[in-house]
Amino acid sequence: MVAVHYIDGETGGVVGRAFAEALPEEGARISLDGGGEYLVLNYWELRPESCDVYVRRVDSGEAAA
What we know:
Mean pLDDT: 88
Largest sheet: 5 strands, mixed
Low-confidence stretches: none
Strand order of the largest sheet: 2-1-5-4-3
Structural class: mainly beta
Helix content: under 10%
Order of helices and strands: EEEEEH
Radius of gyration: 11 Å
Number of strands: 5
């Protein structure tokens, strides 16, 4: 399991934390608990057991497209 910190790519604020079996791919859409839908911009593996994933919130109009 990898400890994942989801970070807003624009503000640098942490928008979520989770444990995952594998890292999400760049360009993938993910849903964070209570936080809505996000697009994965990139990630930085800090150590084999943790990483920072930079995301951008997907607004409702963009999600429907």
